[in-house]
Amino acid sequence: MFTRADYQEYFKTILKKEKEMALFIKQFTQSLSDKSLVAQLNEILRDEIRHTQLAAQLLEQLTS
User: How far apart are CA 15 and CA 18, in angstroms?
Assistant: First the structure.
């Protein structure tokens, strides 16, 4: 059985990874000239930002 601390650690890890993924995509798209590819990656970036927000909300609920 997982403890509250286990879940907190899990969501801290998820939050960190989601932030890293968003930053990578943001930096990667700046080096591209293919507007179609940039548009597709921006869709993924929006998802990563949303995932970051969700993980932060869940972490906040677990720590309050």
Answer: 5
CA distance 53 to 40: 20
Q: Are residues 55 and 15 in contact, defined by beta-carbon separation less than 8 angstroms?
A: yes
Structural domain range at position 28:
4-63
Res 64: pLDDT: 87
For the stretch 13-52, pLDDT in tens is: 999 999 999 999 999 999 999 999 999 999 999 999 999 9
The answer to whether the CB of 62 falls within 8 A of the CB of 8 is yes
- For the chain, the domain total comes to 1
Residue in the block written with tokens 């930053």: 23
